[in-house]
TrEMBL record:
Residue ranges of coiled coil: 47-149
Annotated segments matching region Disordered: 202-258
Compositional bias ranges of the Basic and acidic residues kind: 239-258
Protein's UniProt name: PspA/IM30 family protein
Cross-referenced InterPro entries: PspA_VIPP1
Amino acid sequence: MGLFDRMKRVVSANLNDLVSKAEDPEKMLEQAVLEMQEDLVQLKQGVAQAIAAQKRTEKQYNDAQNEINKWQRNAQLALQKGEENLARQALERKKTFTDTSNALKASLDQQTGQVETLKRNLIQLESKISEAKTKKEMLRARITAAKAQEQLQGMVRGMNSSSAMAAFDRMEEKVLTQEARAQSAAELAGADLENQFASLESGSDVDDELAALKAQMSLPGGSPNQPQLPQQTTPPKSNKNEVVDAELDSLRKQLDQM
């Protein structure tokens, strides 16, 4: 491959790439439909002109037929009157119009075929334009959906690394921290309440023991406010045993009541 061929191929590739990038699908579809509509207008004008020419040829053909019939009648009239020379001239004029009529008939048949072909082409073009418009709207909807999806994907990609999402993460972390603090405070409050009830239970045991001591201090030979001090003199042995026995009985009663 020569150098110029390679350069030509590179230039062509670059130009094709530029053209592809410059093409807007929606605008290209709209332009294609406009061009088809312009072709339709031109074709309609051509069909109208062909039909007009056909009508003129048809009129000329009918006029020639009328002339043929007229000169045919003139020739018959001349023969009836014995004017053979005049009848010959009438037949010559008839032949002239007959030749013209034959030429007009051939042209009329050709024009009729052309008009029928143009009409079929017109119908086909109208059908293609209608199909193109429908397809254009479908493609336009797909282009709009593709653009929206592309824009949405771009927004999603931008949100993944944006400061807004980072702010949401920070706020979520703060909410979690605050919830943890509230839960800890609730647990501490519940533990403190349990400690208070535990202290009340232990306090009741002390109160019971205190009541038992008070009851013990109320024994015979004692005072409600303070215990009885022993006498300086030594009591008889029998009295001492009775006091001990009474105290033992009181302790037994207290034990039974506990």
